[in-house]
Amino acid sequence: MDEGGAAGVAVQAVSPGTSLFRLIDRDDRSDDEVARLRGRGVRVLSRRHLESFLFDDEILIALCKERGHGDKIQEVIEAKKQALSESVMRGNPPDDLKSAGGQIYVAIKRILSLTQCGSTARAFMLETLVPLVNQETKVYSELGRDVFDM
Prior knowledge:
The chain is an all-alpha fold. The chain is 58% helix and 3% strand. Helix 2 (31-39) links the parallel strand 1 (23-24) and strand 2 (43-44).
């Protein structure tokens, strides 16, 4: 059995043939830690956390284009860089998009004049950014490898 433990047993009892696996953020784990976890059946993201995928430049570019603001791509990317820079000044790692996510969300809403796209950074990611992660994106392929060994 994988890292699903008791939850895995319960899911398989209710729905035979279903498997459960554990997926965790990479965070600051070393390559050796990641290898040990993967050896135990735990799936580990290749980037720090899910926000790193959702706030990827590729997805932000797709958002700008989808919303008819291809001319604002550079401004959105610069706002993301600025939010990351300010996050680093607060003591966070340079790839910690989670800590910068709120500021990125607010900037994107302002730059693209978005409304009804999610009332929080989390809702924005789920409702607005997740649908942009599709088979045509590199982010989709990377997540597919991380989550499903595709």
